[in-house]
Design goal:
single chain, mainly beta, Tachylectin-2, Chain A, 4-stranded antiparallel beta sheet, GH43_arabinanases, AbfB_ABD_sf, Alpha-L-arabinofuranosidase B arabinose-binding domain-containing protein
Length: 479
């Protein structure tokens, strides 16, 4: 669909490359938590292996953000991401997303992905949870002999070493056996890191993937940290130190849940989340074998797997949720996230062709009826990039970070390159419709004698002097 990718690929790589935002005024991580943010991917579809977000107020009922479109797109490595994890610094003034560099939808087989796949992870960084850097790769498994992949990464702050432990699964030959094991590195900035070390291995030929650790305040159940891993079962372990000795607590086979070793409800991708304000936890499990999506099981004491119970009082929204992570949100974080991605998507309807809407196609911009996919005609009307107080810009829903802009008085969909020229070209003043004051027209910020209009169904930026042009330059913002 996007044949002009070559023209704008470089711009895509520069999204927020020189971004600068003020850190919150205080350590927001110390504030009470009021909501939840889930990062996930949706599956092996054209855009399914990208970064999606969902929001919840109660930790059980989820609403898809950004109009069910991806929030971040990978422009590095395989140009796809799976298994995203959100990491917050202890001070609450910095965030990272790390993810598997993998795109099965491009035609890669699972065999090739696990034996000849990427050994790097994709990383984004933010100071406010809503403005993200361009992605970069860290080749964490490159130092593992015969490494075939680097899957399902997670990261946790380790006070014992005053840095982050990043851990993931790699398929490699060791002691004559090729299988997935968990390795780790340490890092302070998610750019430089120590040599990879073996972290977790199961006996015989049993592989292990999808390990996730949660820190439990007050060591409820007897341990400060708990980890869940997919290793034929969903095995739960406890420890008081991240890099120390771990004790096996049990698995979920007594609930009819396994990772395949004992059948029943076969799941993967364990994902921890504590309920805000109370000592109760959900372990979300992806029912991938049946395609039913995530199932939460709850516990008030993680020190015994007998304390888990299956829940039915939950809903996951519209999007399919695949292996990800959940971040408890402070009120300030929640406000920023919902202001950025919680608004409903809008469309621009033509005044004189009311069955047609503004849409992007191959990075060109035109008006069409019956737009498919529908997200090509959906935009977030945001404060103007060049004038936030009195103007607007139009950000694509399914290509976040891309905006409608004029270029040589023609319109394109382009990645924000952070320049003042781009900001001016992508900013418009919404005024009373030139053909009908109950509608709207959009006056250029940097060429105020010109307006957005369509001509032969293509969007242009032109001066308006005729009745036909006034009709062509009149629009309605609709949901």
């Amino acid at each position: 669909m996007l044949k002009r990718m070559g023209t704008f690929a470089v711009l895509a790589c520069l999204i927020f490359a020189s971004w600068s935002v003020a850190a919150p005024g205080r350590a927001v991580a110390l504030d009470p938590f009021t909501g939840y943010l889930m990062a996930h991917f949706t599956g092996e579809t054209a855009n399914g292996e990208q970064l999606y977000l969902a929001h919840s107020k109660d930790g059980l009922h989820w609403t898809d953000l950004n109009g069910s479109a991806p929030v971040l797109l990978s422009t590095v490595g395989t140009r796809g991401v799976r298994d995203p994890a959100i990491v917050r610094s202890p001070a609450g003034d910095r965030y990272w997303i790390i993810a598997t560099d993998l795109r099965i939808a491009s035609g890669t087989s699972w065999g090739d992905a696990s034996s000849r796949g990427s050994t790097s992870l994709v990383v984004w960084e933010s100071r406010d949870l809503v403005t993200w850097s361009a992605p970069w790769l860290i080749n964490v498994a490159g130092g593992i002999s015969g490494a075939g992949d680097a899957w399902a990464p997670e990261a946790i702050w380790n006070p014992a070493t005053n840095d982050y432990v990043v851990y993931w699964a790699t398929n490699s030959l060791r002691n004559g056996v090729t299988k997935h094991r968990i390795f780790y590195v340490r890092t302070g900035d998610f750019r430089t890191f120590t040599a990879p070390q073996l972290y977790l291995e199961r006996g015989s030929g049993q592989g292990v993937i999808d390990t996730q650790i949660i820190e439990v305040p007050g060591s409820v159940g007897g341990y400060r940290y708990y980890r869940a891993s997919a290793d034929g079962q969903i095995t739960i372990e406890g420890s008081n130190t991240i890099l120390g000795t771990w004790t096996t607590i049990g698995n979920l086979s007594h609930m009819g849940i396994s990772n395949g070793a004992t059948g029943g409800n076969v799941v993967e991708g364990p994902m921890w989340a504590q309920f805000n304000g109370r000592n109760e936890w959900n372990l979300w499990l992806d029912q991938y074998a049946t395609g039913r999506g995530y199932l939460p099981i709850s516990s008030t004491n993680l020190g015994s797997t007998q304390n888990f119970r299956t829940r039915t009082d939950y809903s996951l929204g519209t999007d399919r949720k695949r292996h990800g992570s959940i971040l408890n949100l402070t009120a300030a974080e929640e406000t920023r996230v919902l202001a950025k991605w919680g608004t409903k998507a809008n469309r621009l309807q033509s005044y004189n062709f009311q069955d047609r809407y503004v849409r992007h196609a191959n990075y060109d911009v035109r008006i069409d009826p019956n737009v498919s996919p529908a997200a090509d005609a959906q935009f977030r009307v945001v404060p103007g990039l060049a004038d936030a107080s009195g103007s607007v810009s139009f950000e694509s829903v399914n290509f976040p970070g891309y905006y409608l802009r004029h270029y040589a008085f023609d319109f394109v969909l382009a990645a924000n390159d952070g320049t003042s020229t781009f900001a001016g070209d992508a900013t418009f003043r919404q005024v009373a419709g030139l053909a009908d004051a109950s509608w709207s027209s959009f006056q250029s910020y940097n060429y105020p004698d010109r307006y957005i209009r369509h001509a032969n169904y293509l969007l242009k930026l032109e001066t308006i002097t005729t009745a036909q042009a006034r009709a062509d330059a009149t629009w309605r913002v609709v949901s």
